Amino acid sequence: MEKVLKTLRKWWEVFVLFHHGTFIDKRMAVVRKEAFDINDNLMLLLFGDFLGIPNPVSYYMLELLPYVADDLETWERRIQNRKFIIAEKAAQYDFD
Amino acid sequence: MTSTEVKVHMKRFTFFGGKGGTGKTSCAAAYSLFLASKGVKTLVVSTDPAHSLADAFDKPIGFQTAQLGDRLWGIEIDAEVEARKYMKAVQDKMLDLVSAAIVDEIKRQIEIAYMSPGAEEAAIFDKFIELMESVGETYDAIVFDTAPTGHTLRLLTLPEILGAWIEHLIEKRKKAMDLMKLAARYDKPLAERIENDPIIKTLSARRDKFSLARRILTDPQESIFHFVLNAEKLPILETARAVELLGRHGIAVGGIVVNKVIPPEAGSFLEKRRLSQEQYLREIRTRFASMKIVELPLLDDDIQGMEQLGLLSPLMEDLGG
User: Average pLDDT by consecutive 10-residue portion of chain B (321 residues)?
Assistant: First the structure.
């Protein structure tokens, strides 16, 4: 009996992982991508002066730096490498 | 006026503004001396980057509060010192949260922001709010000796403009966080982290500071603005414009101090000037009819030191306690 339960539980776990991988993760990835995009745009409003875009409150934005310091470098690279906005959007909707 | 009357009528925050060279500092110093003499614990603050408060009192004042007399303290806000303090706080906070290598990387960016236009103003404004918050405990009243008109108007209207900008940033971050939360539905620890987003917290704290400053500045029971001018054409015109602009931003103007009024006994050399001044004084009285008008005579010597200020300070009584 115990052995059967154990096998059942194992299969259930496999099923959950399969379900997440097939349906949820993909859907969530779209939402996450959208959230990241909004965040990237927000970063542009917060720290645009690092890229040469004047910001009226850049002095006050410094106090946010500790919380975004880790992402700052990759964000800068991402935002500077943006070439095809349409392709970016298309990728988000899984047209490939 | 007795000291209890003064304590009832005075505003907690009094600003002296006006065109450069009209005598704002002398008036602010004399008025603060008047308040102190009536038993009000008074702090007089200079927000002008080119300080002259120490010269008016003929005593050293720095970026830290210095005692100038009985119940009277003074401070000259130093933008550079304040900005350095702020950057130090940011760097310390950063060391707590991220690795030293990243802090090094980011130092360059901090320097850029430090050099950016507006940084000096922002630093002065921060100190300005900090001092305003200290009223009630250490001091009963603060008298501000402000910079020439343009600079001051920007300083006082800053909270309104920046408040709107920051509000927009918070909205945007909230939107991103809502989506993140949606995506993190199956990830408990991540969802919790999103709930306590430090960026929204920091931005909100900043917004609250701005709205506090705005509330105090636009409350006629709390703060009052006095203009100092000379009986000449240009100062009158500039003051009229400034009064209108402050009114549009909801800041109350209480009085006009006409400084350096030539007395009749000045003699024949100044007689012609005195006559044209009479005409300007009439214009001031009609133009600013709704405000209290105080006239200070032209003295035969520079206003410097406690003794001279003591001569002027009783005249400031008409501005109201």
Answer: 74 88 88 90 87 86 88 90 88 83 77 76 85 84 84 75 85 86 73 80 88 86 90 90 87 88 82 89 90 86 80 82 51
**Looking at beta carbons, which residues of chain B come within 8 Å of A36?**
176
The beta-strand segments (E) located in B117-249 are 141-145, 223-230
Instruction: Select from B88, B116, B171, B207 the residue whose CB has the most chain A CBs within 10 Å, as the one to mutate to test that interface.
Output: B116
User: Which residues in chain B are contacts of A20 at CB distance < 8 A?
Assistant: 186
Ordered by start, the domain boundaries in chain B are 3-81+139-157+223-319, 162-211
Nearest CA to B86 out of A61, A63, A64 is that of A63
Asked if ipTM goes beyond 0.85, one says no
- Can you tell me the distance from the alpha carbon of B136 to that of A54, in angstroms, rounded to the nearest whole number? 38
Per CB-CB distance under 8 Å, the chain A contacts of B161 are 56
For chain B, report the end-to-end CA distance as a whole number of angstroms: 8
Given an 8 Å threshold on Cβ–Cβ distance, is A70 in contact with B98? yes
Best residue of B180, B196, B200, B209 to probe chain A, by most A CBs closer than 10 Å:
B180
Name the CATH code of domain B3-81+139-157+223-319 (choices 3.40.50.300, 1.10.10.10, 3.30.450.20, 3.40.50.1100). Answer: 3.40.50.300
Both tokens of B153, joined, read 């108007």
